[in-house]
Amino acid sequence: MIETPLYSIRMRAAQGGPHEEGGLHISGAERIGLFQDLQTIAAELLGKSLSHTRGEADYVQIVVEKLDTHTLQKVLPLSVSTHHVSDWQQGREKAAELLSVSGISRQAIYSGLEILKSAGNLRGAAILDGRTGKRLDDRGERGIRASRMDWDSASFTRWAQDHGSLGSIRIREALALATKVVYSPFTMAELCWSDDPDYVTGYVASLEHGYQRINHLKEWGDPAGGRVFFVHPETDLDDYIQYLEKTPIWIGGGLYESSR
Ligand code: WAQ
Ligand code: MG
Question: Crossing angle, helix 88-101 and helix 106-117, to 10 degrees?
Fold first, then answer.
């Protein structure tokens, strides 16, 4: 158990007003930090929101909340592998293959790909039944935002030293998110590619096979992207959403250093 107070810091930014009033989603982020790091983290998130390739934000919200550290879970990051393909069509075939290895049905893979292809303004994830492909949440473009997960910074520094070119902020955030998502027993796998027009690498993640990057999952310049969480047919949706939004997950948390 951790006695030091920890805080969740979340940011969301939009253009043309807040998301709930029809604004275009520009960027979002979720972090966890110590009291003394809050100002630095808030400044980092503000910086991210104000210089973004999806456009200029005119609405930025930053929320800080003290966490109940009694429920904090420390976990190791997923292992990372990278698949190289020559274009986005091959990339999506690769993604379909990796998802089917995790037991996702053809129908559900098709539904997931269709959602991401046409997601121009999705700011969270769509939850899909991994067997039928039916969308289970009713959040529309808002989706479900996994929150309250982050690396402990010393663990990330070590991890980045061990993983060469993978030590970017983007990968830091994506790996923390995927690790939280696949640690739920309800998750079968996650599919993601960015909604940033200048970032075409995405991934398929699962507990068994880890964080499997695919270097080309969409066309350069395409602003469509998002996340799909494929779940077991018997998932308790309320429990699952509660875990994704509320349970604090501390990646590394001192475990990474000793596992090397
Ligand atoms: N919870 C649920 N969905 C989210 C969250 C979240 N916390 N954050 C982002 N999303 C969804 C939302 O629909 C975004 O529009 C979409 O994902 C893309 O977010 O090289 O940069 O932050 O290994 O643009 C993955 C590959 C990069 C990194 C993903 O996503 C690598 C990326 P972005
Ligand atoms: Mg984005």
Answer: 140
The pLDDT tens digits of the residues spanning 44-91 come to 999 999 999 999 999 999 999 999 888 899 999 999 999 999 999 999
Closest CA to 189 of 109, 123, 245: 109
Residue indicated by tokens 């609405």: 59
CA of 177 to the centre of ligand 2 (A): 13
pTM above 0.85, yes or no: yes
| Ligand 1 midpoint to CA 193 (Å) | 7
Strands 249-251 and 73-75: parallel
Question: Which residue's CA is minimally distant from atom 24 of ligand 1?
Answer: 194
Looking from the CA of residue 175, the nearest atom of ligand 1 is 23
Query: What SS3 state is found at 194?
Result: coil
Query: How far apart are the CA of 109 and the centre of ligand 1, in A?
Result: 18
Supply 53's token pair. Answer: 């390739």
Strand pairing category for 187-193 and 202-206: antiparallel
- CB distance 55 to 38 below 8 Å: no
